[in-house]
Amino acid sequence: MTLALMKGQVEAPQVQAIKAVDKWKVFRTLSEARGMLGLHDRTLAVLNALLSFYPSAELAERQNLVVFPSNAQLTLRAHGIAGTTLRRHLAVLVEAGIVHRRDSPNGKRYARRGRAGDIEQAFGFDLAPLLVRAEEFARLAERVIEERRLLRQAREALTICRRDVRKLLSAAIQEGMVGDWMAHEDRYSDLASRLARNPSLRDVETVLTAMEALREEILNTLESQIKFQELGANDAQNGCHIQSSHPESILESEPRLKQAEQSISGGKTTDAGQPVKMLPLSLVLKACPQVADYAPGGSVGGWRDLMSAAIVVRSALGVSSSAYQEACEIMGPESAATAISCILERAGQINNAGGYLRDLTRKAALGQFSPGPMLMALMRAHTGEKFMT
Fold first, then answer.
1. Mean of the pLDDT values across residues 64-76?
2. What does the pLDDT read at residue 150?
3. How many other C-beta atoms can be found within 10 angstroms of the C-beta atom of residue 146?
4. Fewest CB atoms within 10 Å of the CB: 199, 267, 291, 312?
5. Which of 297, 290, 281 is nearest to 316 (CA)?
6. Contact 44, 30 (CB under 8 A)
């Protein structure tokens, strides 16, 4: 007996309790909130055994809520728990204010019955705190469930953010883009190693905030590269592919293909004299993942695959062959395929894909359009930011 235990037992009868509560419902809420109450699984097993000795399914006011099983009976219903372990967990339940002790003069647990067989007085463990604190336990359980939900969301967001950072770093390094990528790699590894096996919500949120800042820094670096660095067309291997009326043929005539290839190798420029800029294929696929579904075999392994997929997408979006051909001639086949991939990503926001592509083609002819900003806006949209045109 301690002063805290005595205070709890004195105050318990004075608390306004609810009329009745399902004992197993209270047990389930306690199971959810066990961490906040300092209860372990074995402690809950002992509580389950105590509840099984209460004959009614409900704990109700003005009923005798004292159960008086012997340690031997409790051991059997607690799956053979050892005597010393049983006593330790009973003490935990008492100290946590889950049950109260009602001791007899000789320390035994029993009930004194009247002439009619009704229990007049019982000595053992009083389950009244479960009735009195039922609403408190329910609030604790709701809090635990909410924290678990927030933790799950935070971990999912961190997983997505880590994947984004990993793919962006890989693309930047593989494409040879300018930047201190090794420092970013070290920072990424440091953040990834901070989480323990079972991190708290606060730990996950701290790492998530830092990882999101790293992703934003990488995106800004890549964006500046796309905006201000002219990328050569040395990766371009094939020209613009136009879909014919025959489903078995994806490429148009060989002369048209050769003409497109020659325009690339010759360093095609727009009417405004601006050189056509080639973007890294890996960045295009990062910003426009849906286009891979239209590629041969469901994956894009090179520019040829992307341009073949763009032919299928062009048809699916209702873009005319002439509009796409004009885009290939003005922008270059790779940039046209990139533009079509971006339009596919925004298909739900664009009413007329063909008219939109023709407008982009006119701007490209005047040197006022490059697919780079579209790609970066899509990448930001995929990381949860608002798409900006």
1. 89
2. 94
3. 10
4. 267
5. 290
6. yes
